[in-house]
Amino acid sequence: MGTVVIFGLVTILAIFGLLRSLKDKNFFGAFFAFGTLAVFGWFTVMTVLHHGFPTGH
C-alpha cells in the first residue's frame, strides 16, 4: 500500500511543477509536468479505487 502514497506525492509535486513551469512560461517543462501529472495522477486514482486507502497498523 506504500505505492499509493508514493504515487500521491509524485502527483502533488507534478502539480507544483506544472504551475511553476506555466508561471515561468517554460512550455517544454510544462509539457513534461503535465504528462507526469496525467500518468501518476491516473495511477493514484486507480490504485485508490481498486485497493482502497492505505491503513495504519
Polypeptide structure, described:
This protein has one domain. It is mainly α and 57 residues long. It is built from 2 helices and no strands. Helix 1 (2-23) runs antiparallel to helix 2 (27-51).
Structure characteristics:
elongated; 57 residues; 82% helix; mainly alpha
Set out the fold topology.
Blueprint: H1 2-23, H2 27-51
Helix pairs in contact: 1-2
Protein name: DUF2759 domain-containing protein
InterPro entries: DUF2759
Organism: Metabacillus sediminilitoris
* Approximate strand percentage: under 5%
Structural class: mainly alpha
Number of domains: 1
Radius of gyration: 13 Å
> Looking at the structure, what is the overall shape?
elongated
Whole-Å distance between the termini? 12 Å
Can you count the helices? 2
Largest β sheet strand count, sense and barrel closure: none
- The proportion of residues forming helix, as a percent range, comes to over 70%
Order of helices and strands: HH
| Strand segment count | 0
Give a summary of the structure in a few sentences:
This protein is mostly helical and 57 residues long.
